[in-house]
Amino acid sequence: EVQLVESGGGLVQPGGSLRLSCAASGFTFSSYWMSWVRQAPGKGLEWVANIKQDGSEKYYVDSVKGRFTISRDNAKNSLYLQMNSLRAEDTAVYYCARPYCSSTSCLSDAFDIWGQGTMVTVSS
Amino acid sequence: DIQMTQSPSTLSASVGDRVTITCRASQSISSWLAWYQQKPGKAPKLLIYKASSLESGVPSRFSGSGSGTEFTLTISSLQPDDFATYYCQQYNSIGVTFGGGTKVEIK
């Protein structure tokens, strides 16, 4: 079964750090760009970051540039999001998502596989 | 950034109704548009990709159309399982963006 399982969410104070993980199974993880998408409570979906198959290219939404770092370990079939200098507005459910196509050119695509999400709450 | 605007934000309908949701892009995105269904506490589920291609396993009552800047998602006969929130997403540019969502409620 194709699956993504996120972990690492929790309650953190403003200015703090958190590292999210996403474990992939059931498909060739190293063949796909991978993304993080978040959803603030009661709000819509916002793409956060993505990373190329070999980790050589990374892109971020402007609001997290310089604070968040996306990375991956293909040997462990895992995706990560290091979040530093967290703000209240970063409070959200964070999903990892797999794009529909597996080409190295698919840096923008629809997402056909999503994890269940992990909640990050930034509050004092 | 490409802005995606969905309308309406909320829609009240009955089982059996034909429902149409509109999504407009701030610039042309060709046919690089997807539609998702999301239920409370769950991850989004892909329904339509490339504007009109039905994802495997999705009921044929769902259909998508449009190109350029204007797109529609149609549910031909609303079923009880279809009450949910629907999002469009453009993937024409680096940094995909989503519409604000349309909540389909029971009338």
Task: Characterise the protein shown here.
Chain A has strands at 3-7, 10-12, 18-25, 34-39, 45-51, 58-60, 68-73, 78-83, 92-99, 111-114, 118-122. Chain A is mainly β and 124 residues long. In chain A, the strands form two sheets. In chain A, strands 2, 4, 5, 6, 9, 10 and 11 form a seven-stranded mixed β-sheet that branches. In chain A, strands 1-3-8-7 form a four-stranded antiparallel β-sheet, with no helix packed on it. The mean pLDDT of chain A is 97. In chain B, a hairpin with a 3-residue loop joins strand 5 and strand 6. Chain B is globular, with a radius of gyration of 13 Å. The N and C termini of chain B lie far apart (36 Å). Chain B is 0% helix and 50% strand. In chain B, strands 2, 4, 5, 6, 9, 10 and 11 form a seven-stranded mixed β-sheet that branches. At the A-B interface, strand 5 and strand 10 of A face strand 5 and strand 10 of B.
Q: Major beta sheet of chain B, specifics?
A: 7 strands, mixed
Contiguous uncertain segments of 5+ residues of chain B: none
Biggest chain contact: A-B, 19 and 24 residues
Looking at how many chains there are and whether they match, the oligomeric state comes to heterodimer
Structural classification of chain A: mainly beta
Q: Rough shape of chain A?
A: globular
The pLDDT mean of chain A sits at 97
The SS-based structural class of chain B is mainly beta
